[in-house]
């Protein structure tokens, strides 16, 4: 098989999303942080070279708290990737965000603990993270979802897992005004920023989290089932967005490390 050109865009698939490309070339990559969750698939979508990585592994080998996030982002960058679309399954924290809702968050809250969340353990490297997602990629996702009534913005709280939240925890998150909850959005987003990558997520609500009302109680099966019902829509959306992206990054993400004295050489 002939080698695909270097991909500058990647899709990271989440729970229930393990394949994306037709006829991909699989590339084994190693990094200073170990191997990524799976070999990286590279193929073309409407003529554009695209990388795909299932964050939990090809067979959901890594639960959210064990995903090798640093290796995943490093490996993608080492292949040439500079723009990352990262769909995920989330629980709705507000009644208006029921199963089937697509939401493109603009903020996140980190409630994880103990995850390795930086590449920079020496020196003084402190990236700005006020706006954790690339505004340009968010715009592309929202345009692509126009027919699905997407929610533009909202806060995604990321919990450690692997268990789902108690009713009290969930109610507390909802009372803060946060929109949706998941387990993988951090440290993925900040590691992308630390590599000066553009990164945005599209969240598919698969369930009401436990605090939304007395009847709601999340189950893993329900998450997978609702996700499966919307997988085709999501894949079509991502194909369209990927095909329509420019490769001239007209946004601040590429400058995230400007002027910093990096203690390591980025791939
Ligand atoms: C399978 S239930 C919980 C699991 O689903 C979400 O995964 P992802 O964000 O990769 O779509 C959630 O974050 C948990 O990892
Ligand atoms: N309710 C929920 N809590 C945490 N992660 C999730 N992923 C999908 N639904 C979730």
Quick summary:
The protein is an alpha/beta fold and 267 residues long.
Folded structure, characterized:
The protein is an alpha/beta fold and 267 residues long. It has a single domain (9-255), classed as Nucleoside phosphorylase domain (Rossmann fold), CATH 3.40.50.1580. It is 24% helix and 21% strand. The protein contains 5 helices and 13 strands. The strands form 2 sheets. Strands 8-10-11-6-13-7-9 form a 7-stranded mixed beta sheet, with helices on both faces. Strands 2-3-4-1-5-12 form a 6-stranded mixed beta sheet, sandwiched between helices. Helix 3 (167-175) links the parallel strand 10 (155-159) and strand 11 (180-182). It is globular, with a radius of gyration of 18 Å. Bound molecules: the ligand CSC[C@H]1O[C@H](OP(=O)(O)O)[C@H](O)[C@@H]1O and adenine (ADE). Adenine is lined by residues 89-91, 159, 164, 181-183, 206-207, 209, 218, 223.
Cα shape: globular
Question: Helix and strand string, N-terminal first?
Answer: EEEEHEEEEHEEHEHEEH
CATH class: Alpha Beta
> Mean of residue pLDDT?
96
SSE layout and pairing:
Layout: E1 9-13, E2 25-27, E3 40-45, E4 48-54, H1 69-78, E5 83-85, E6 88-92, E7 102-104, E8 107-111, H2 135-144, E9 151-152, E10 155-159, H3 167-175, E11 180-182, H4 185-194, E12 198-200, E13 203-208, H5 220-244
Parallel strand pairs: 1-4, 1-5, 5-12, 6-13, 7-9, 8-10, 10-11
Antiparallel strand pairs: 2-3, 3-4, 6-11, 7-13
The structure holds the ligand CSC[C@H]1O[C@H](OP(=O)(O)O)[C@H](O)[C@@H]1O and adenine.
Adenine binds next to β6, β11 and β13.
């Amino acid at each position: 098989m002939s080698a695909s050109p270097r991909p500058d865009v990647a899709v990271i698939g989440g729970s229930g999303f393990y394949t994306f490309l037709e006829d991909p070339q699989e590339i084994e990559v190693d990094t200073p942080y170990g191997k990524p969750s799976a070999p990286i698939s590279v193929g073309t979508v409407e003529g554009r070279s695209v990388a795909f990585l299932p964050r939990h592994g090809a067979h959901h080998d890594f639960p959210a708290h064990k995903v090798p996030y640093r290796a995943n982002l490093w490996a993608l960058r080492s292949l040439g990737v500079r723009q990352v679309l990262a769909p995920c399954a989330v629980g709705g924290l507000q009644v208006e965000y029921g199963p089937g809702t697509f939401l493109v968050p603009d903020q996140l809250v980190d409630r994880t603990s103990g995850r390795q969340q930086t590449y920079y353990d020496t020196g003084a490297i402190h990236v700005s993270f006020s706006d954790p997602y690339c505004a340009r990629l968010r715009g592309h996702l929202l345009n692509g979802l126009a027919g699905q009534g997407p929610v533009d913005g909202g806060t995604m709280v990321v919990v450690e897992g692997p268990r789902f939240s108690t009713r009290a925890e969930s109610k507390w998150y909802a009372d803060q005004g946060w929109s949706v909850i998941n387990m993988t959005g951090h440290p993925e987003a900040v590691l992308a920023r630390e590599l000066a990558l553009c990164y945005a997520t599209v969240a598919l609500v698969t369930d009401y989290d436990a605090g939304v009302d007395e009847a709601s109680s999340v189950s893993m099966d329900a998450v997978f089932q609702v996700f499966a019902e919307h997988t085709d829509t999501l894949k079509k959306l991502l194909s369209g967005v990927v095909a329509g992206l420019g490769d001239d990054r007209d946004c601040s993400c590429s400058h995230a490390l400007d002027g910093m004295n990096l203690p390591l050489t980025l791939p």
